[in-house]
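Structure (tokenized):
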């Protein structure tokens, strides 16, 4: 692969590997779109070129080139289920580009005819009764569901898409008749479609950036020893897979090679971390925090995604369909009556045209598209738009605890030194040093607290691990640790600056014969208050104690009162943690129902029980929440703190660590619903009012066609108000 054109923030590559290879070009385009810092990409299999526009502050040409060369040289199993979610992103991207092109052309045609009509006037065909009759017939067939279904039934054997033919004919006749109202309507519909697809594309891209690999996939080892990305549906017992740092374990298996620290956070909901090495078993849903593992699959994984609700279940849609069914009968009766008394077929045509109910359906469809665009402005992605009705009807919300209402890490409440030779900061530095290579919540809390003391920006550390390493080197921390061993569920034993250090709980200290007489009452007092006390000793002498507790998201404190102001008072907390720890969080946030020590099945039973009397929304983040999320009427997750399986089973994904966005979701949904409902009523009233005028011969057939078009334009303009809704309490 070589560079053929280089500009600041823009580069074009050329490679023979994607030339005439549509599948590889497609996958490469998908992959490039998920590279950090890439703003735009276009991969052409016809020329073998790759165009990339990128943010120079976030990435550079060398990194991009290396990433592309890696994907071009890797093996990918392109089976039908392998990259479904990534294919969805690619399809939306293609649709967006097509609609964008269509919007440009429809806008230009509209402007061209406006200019031409103002200078030269209209051609004779625009006033042709035959052309008008044909256009009216197409409008009537497309606008009345009953007639449209009859048309589809008689044209189902046509090779081409019958609905496409109907739309194409309508567009051609609109152009031939030089109907500026019709051309404006086409341009507005294209604009509305582009806005919706752009919002979808933005959210899909954010979602892909939050996934390490495509969901429900695994790196399987081929007979030649190469790694190949394949669908988890295609793996079999005893297959060998690779699991890389940062990835979710896709299937239960035995570790054949490698060592790592594994987090149980997404699997059990508990932030426990433990070491894994050759001969150990890894379980589906755990996360590899360090190193790479070679694993033999011993249990086929069960993978399923939440089924989408059908559009027909929306109450708004039911009302639209009900009105359309009624108006068909009314239009037929009025048309027959009019013909009996007037014998004027054009007057009959005027009545049927004016009563055509397509505007109410347009009000619903474009309203939902604008609603999706509105949510995307606030970093909310409604993956399943058909839950719209359920969201506004929600009267019960169930929260997972750890990682949802609370942080994954803890917060330090107090540090107490029992040795005048060691200050509070010195004790914190020793703990952070000895825990530097560990990843569990307590060690992360030590490190983050020390970084705060030295004003190290958390985001800077997240983007560049060298910052953290440099910080430790400058503070002579890492060099002072000669040895450090993590003992799961107990603590850490280390040698720091030639001193033996123990960090852990009372059981760990008693096993090592450390006297706790003077501090045991204090330790138990904090433990009974649901704090996490951590003991520290140097060379067998108790040196200090650090008091921690579970840290609740600041935005959680603001969320609960806002929900109660909306009348959503049935709030519940589900946790696999102990009842007492769950009660501490529920009491702090004023959540009335608490369920502790819950496994996956118990969570589902609680959701199903609540669904008997309520519309239930579930907010979760871990693999142990998947079944409950699938059972709930509406499921919501936060992208940055949820595992990939949860995202696939979420109706709504929020791309911001702010619980307040959940309140915004409900507020924006209710406000949008009111506007859409009002616009449907306006469209229906418009039909009935002008239909009455048409009955008494108030309109010519030309005027009736324009009135029908104006109704559609009106609801499109009224629906634009949705884009300007602001979240309120």
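Design, position by position:
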């Amino acid at each position: 692969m070589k560079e053929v054109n280089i500009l600041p923030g823009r580069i074009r590559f050329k490679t023979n590997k994607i030339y005439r290879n549509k599948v590889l070009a497609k996958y490469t385009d998908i992959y490039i779109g998920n590279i950090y810092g890439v703003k735009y990409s276009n991969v052409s299999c016809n020329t073998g070129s790759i165009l990339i526009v990128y943010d120079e502050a976030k990435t550079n040409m060398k990194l991009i080139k290396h990433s592309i060369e890696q994907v071009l040289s890797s093996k990918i199993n392109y089976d039908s289920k392998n990259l479904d979610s990534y294919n969805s992103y690619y399809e939306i991207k293609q649709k967006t580009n097509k609609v964008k092109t269509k919007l440009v052309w429809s806008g230009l045609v509209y402007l061209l005819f406006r200019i031409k009509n103002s200078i030269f006037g209209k051609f004779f065909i625009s006033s042709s009764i035959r052309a008008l009759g044909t256009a009216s017939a197409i409008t009537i067939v497309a606008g009345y569901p009953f007639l449209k279904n009859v048309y589809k039934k008689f044209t189902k054997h046509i090779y081409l898409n019958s609905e496409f033919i109907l739309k194409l004919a309508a567009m051609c006749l609109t152009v031939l008749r030089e109907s500026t109202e019709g051309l404006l309507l086409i341009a507005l519909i294209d604009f509305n479609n582009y806005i919706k697809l752009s919002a979808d594309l933005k959210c899909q891209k954010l979602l892909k950036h939050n996934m390490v690999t495509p969901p429900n996939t695994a790196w399987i080892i081929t007979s030649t020893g190469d790694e190949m990305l394949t669908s988890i549906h295609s793996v079999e017992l005893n297959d060998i897979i690779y699991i890389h740092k940062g990835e979710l374990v896709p299937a239960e298996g035995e570790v054949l090679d490698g060592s790592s620290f594994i987090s149980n956070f997404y699997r059990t909901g508990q932030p426990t971390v433990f070491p894994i090495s050759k001969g150990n078993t890894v379980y589906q849903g755990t996360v590899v925090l360090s190193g790479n593992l070679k694993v033999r699959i011993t249990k086929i994984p069960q993978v399923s995604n939440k089924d989408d609700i059908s559009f027909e279940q929306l109450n708004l849609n039911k009302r639209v369909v009900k009105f359309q069914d009624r108006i068909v009968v009314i239009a037929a009766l009025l048309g027959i009556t009019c013909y009996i008394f007037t014998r004027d077929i054009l007057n009959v045509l005027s009545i049927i045209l004016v009563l055509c109910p397509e505007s109410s359906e347009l009000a619903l469809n474009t309203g939902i598209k604008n609603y999706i665009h509105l949510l995307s402005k606030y970093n909310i992605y409604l993956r399943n738009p058909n839950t719209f009705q359920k969201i506004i009807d929600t009267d019960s919300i169930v929260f997972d605890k750890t990682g949802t209402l609370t942080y994954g890490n803890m917060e330090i409440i107090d540090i107490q030194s029992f040795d005048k030779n060691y200050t509070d900061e010195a004790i914190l530095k020793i703990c952070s040093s000895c825990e530097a290579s560990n990843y569990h919540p307590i060690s992360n809390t030590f490190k983050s607290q020390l970084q705060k003391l030295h004003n190290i920006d958390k985001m800077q550390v997240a983007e560049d691990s060298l910052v953290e390493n440099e910080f430790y080197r400058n503070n002579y921390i890492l060099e002072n640790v000669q040895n450090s061993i993590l003992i799961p569920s107990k603590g850490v034993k280390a040698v720091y600056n030639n001193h033996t250090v123990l960090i852990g709980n009372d059981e760990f200290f008693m096993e090592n014969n450390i006297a706790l007489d003077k501090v045991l009452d204090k330790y138990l007092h904090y433990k009974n208050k649901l704090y996490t006390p951590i003991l520290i000793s140097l060379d067998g002498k108790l040196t200090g104690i650090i008091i921690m507790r579970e840290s609740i998201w600041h935005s959680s404190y603001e969320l609960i009162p806002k929900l109660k102001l909306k009348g959503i008072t049935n709030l519940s907390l589900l946790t696999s943690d102990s009842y007492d720890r769950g009660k501490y969080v529920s009491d702090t946030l004023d959540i009335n129902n608490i369920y502790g020590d819950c496994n996956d099945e118990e969570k589902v039973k609680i959701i199903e029980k609540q669904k008997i009397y309520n519309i239930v929304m579930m907010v979760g983040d871990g693999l142990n929440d998947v079944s409950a999320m699938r059972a709930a009427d509406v499921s919501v997750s936060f992208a940055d703190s949820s595992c990939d399986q949860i995202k696939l089973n979420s109706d709504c994904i929020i791309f911001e660590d702010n619980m307040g966005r959940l309140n915004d979701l409900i507020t924006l949904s209710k406000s949008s619903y009111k506007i859409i409902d009002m616009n449907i009523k306006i469209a229906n009233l418009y039909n009935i009012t002008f239909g009455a005028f048409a009955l008494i011969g108030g309109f010519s057939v030309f005027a009736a066609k324009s009135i029908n078009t104006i109704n559609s334009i009106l609801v499109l303009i009224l629906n634009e108000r949705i884009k300007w809704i602001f979240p309120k309490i």
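Reviewer-requested clarification: The longest strand covers residues 406-417. The first helix runs from residue 22 to 33.
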